[in-house]
Each structure stands twice: as structure tokens, then as C-alpha cells.
Amino acid sequence: MKISKRRNTIAALLILVFLLGSWSDTDPTKKAKKIEASQQRSGDPQKGKDYLLNGNYLNSGIPFDIYNSFNANKPQKLIDRTGDNENVPPQFNTVRAENNTKVIAPNCLTCHSEYINGKFIIGLGNNTFDYTQNLASITPFVSMAIVNKYGIDSPEWHAFEPFKVASEKINPELQTEVRGVNPADKLTSALVAHRDPVTLEWSDEPLLAIPDQTIPTDVPPWWVLKKKNAMFYTAIGRGDFSKFLMASSLLTLKDSTQAAEIDKSFPDVLSWINTLEAPAYPFVVDQTLAQRGQRIFELNCSKCHGNYSGKEDYPNLLIPLDVIGTDPALSDAYTKGTYSTFINWYNKSWFTKGAHPGKLVIEEGYVAQPLDGIWATAPYLHNGSVPTLDVLLNSKSRPEYWQRSFNSMDYDSISVGWKYKTLSTKEDVQTYDTNLEGYGNKGHEFGDDLSDQERRAVIEYLKTI
Prior knowledge:
Layout: H1 2-26, E1 33-34, H2 45-54, E2 62-63, H3 64-70, E3 92-96, E4 102-106, E5 113-116, E6 119-122, H4 139-150, H5 155-170, H6 184-193, E7 237-239, H7 241-245, H8 256-263, H9 266-273, H10 287-300, H11 302-305, E8 317-319, H12 321-324, H13 329-335, H14 340-347, E9 358-360, E10 366-367, H15 389-392, E11 401-403, E12 411-412, E13 417-418, E14 421-423, E15 431-433, H16 452-462
Antiparallel strand pairs: 1-8, 2-4, 3-4, 5-6, 7-9, 8-10, 11-14, 11-15, 12-13
Helix pairs in contact: 2-9, 4-5, 6-14, 10-16
């Protein structure tokens, strides 16, 4: 009897060792690379908020009176602004151009604000904008209006001209295949192609080759930035984050002297962004089921995505492509040459000089993101190819072609994400086609082994973080 029990114990230990060994072979962190932190400049959050929502980091745009003639109806007041900005949509600032003419210019909320369940959220990535169209198509009408009202040599025309020229050169380069995704990486590549790397002065003719392909991304929420040691899905943004944030000014920037002035305010902007918190899930949560999901999450997911109870921690891991398995186009663009002209430009540019340089670190893979407020950030994966958490955690059920209404009220509180319909083929630009290069929905198959009950529990827990 004793010998039999001993044999059973040894057998059980051998099985346990085998199982642990099998887990370690498939552990996604085994080949991951830890991203080390970079020192950031401190700033004043309140000044940063004011500068972001009212500042002139873009100082060329549509003359104020012309804008009002096109937009007679007062928009809903969504953010607390006064003066000329009180009745301007939050994605625009009323500022003074270099010649002191009052103009309307876009701001960072163009990409970094969105509605969900009818509520406007600053810091939530825009997932409804339609970049399938050429956004420069409106500039001839604005140009005609300015010339007719003020004349071709007027202060209003000269205040508008840098914005006009950049828009007409850049916007045709940004068209995506599907509505809702963002061309941020192509935008950066196109902008720097028209700038001298040292002086940052504009050139009407591109100084570098602009890549043909527009690789899509889903805009990540701002509130996770404070946890991250690198910016962007590919973790290329290292060093001083403020340098990357202020690069939005490249659209209308005059030169490096003006860039240095703008740069002084962006540590304040970063400090304010770091105060943002994820919105709370607005529906009922099954707390018992969520507690069960927390245990499953902490056993299976927290090594990559961090812990969200007690003392929170986030590991900052870059996961190789052969482990994560998600669409490789964005990562490959940096490691295999599509965006090599941008990399070469940046590494010798004004942005890498001085006491607080930005740095590009090019490595294969994607960052395992912090999951704060993940309930609000659908669609999922770095290219927005997956509509809900339910199908994210069950890769075999992901739709090949799918379509949503782009109405913020069409939220699915059960599957967590956007209500959608599955199609048999692509109908139009409203259809997400996962067969397109850069738009694939494969990979991140770590939830496939969960039972339906376990998956529901994990999703319930994810609602709470």
C-alpha cells in the first residue's frame, strides 16, 4: 500500500513538472523584451490642459469669420472653454496666426477624443473618423471664400496659406481602406518628408520618398500613457515623450526656432495627460463573476498586461511577432524598410538634439498594452480589426468582414465592444475587411483555451479595470 501511494505521488509530481514545463514553453513573456523607462520632464498639469485646449501649437488655419460662415450653428458645448473657443468644436482651437490674424486650427483632440454611449471622452482614441476620403477636398472652397472676401494678398490669406499648402500636400497621402482606423504613422512619414531635419523648414516638394502604403492603427487611449516606458504600439518612441507629442505642430510649423518655443509647453501637456483616468464602466457588473475572472486573469494574462488590484504594476513588455501573431505590417514597416526614410530623418533631426532628446528604438513586435478602461476602447488589436472582447478572446469566432453603425449608442455591454453584423464580402468602406494587408485580425490567441464560462468571467472582470 505504501509503495503504491509513493508511486502515485511520484507520478503526480512528474505530471506537474511536465505541465509546468509545457506552460513555460508557451509563456508569451519568455521571449518578450523588457522596455526600460526614460526620464521625463515635469510640468504643470493645469497649464498643460489650457495649452492643449486653447494653445497655438498649430498657428495657421481657416480665418475665424470664414469658419463661422461655414458653421452657423453653435455646436454642443462639450468641454469647458470660454471666449472665442466657447462655441468651437473641441477638436479645434481659435488662435492667432503669426501675423496676428484670428484663425481656427485643429488640435490634438482630432485623434484623441471620442464618444461612447453618447458621452464625450477626452483621451479616448477617435474610432469613427473617415480617412477613406481625401480631406484636402474642402480647401478649394475655403480658398475661394477667403479670396472673395479678403483678397489674395490679405492677412487672412497669408494666415491660411501654410495650413492650405500642408493640407493639400499631406492629406492625399493619408487615405485608408476602411473607416475608423487612423493613418498616424503615414502622416508622420509624409510630414517629415516635407521638412528639413535640422531647421524644420517646409519644402513644397518632398525631400524624401513617401511610402505608398498607409498602414492603419487604432488610436490608443491617453490615460495608459503614464504607465508606459515607450510610446506607440511598436514601442519606437523612447526618450522624451514631450518631443513626440509636440510633433503634431509639424503641420504648420515655421522652423526649429518656433519648435523650441512650442516644446517648452509640452512637458505641461504630458503632465496633464498623465492625470487622466479611464472612465468607469457605466453598466451593472456581476461582481461574483468578476472575482472569478480576476483569478483567471491574474493566472493567465497579468504577466503581459499587468495587475490591477492592490499594488498595481505593469511590466512594459515588447512581445515578438512569432509570439503575439498579430498583423505584422506595422512592425515590419519599421524593421524592414517601409518607414526607413522617417527613421533616418528622425535620427538626425532637431528632435534628437539638446538636453531632452526623443529617441527611436526599432525592434520587432508589439507592446502588450495596459488594459485600464479596456471596455471603452473597442475595436481591439493595434489595427482595430476585432469588434468585441468576446471575439478577441476567441480567435476562431472573429469575423472576416464586419460592419458597425459608428453610432456611439450601439455599444454591446455583453460582448463588450461594438455591435456589428458579419458580412460575406466587403460592401463598402464601412466594412472592415481583414484580408487587406495591415488589416488582419489573426493572433493573440491566448484566450482560445478558455471555456465559455471562463471567458465570460474574464470579460466581466475586464469591465472593472
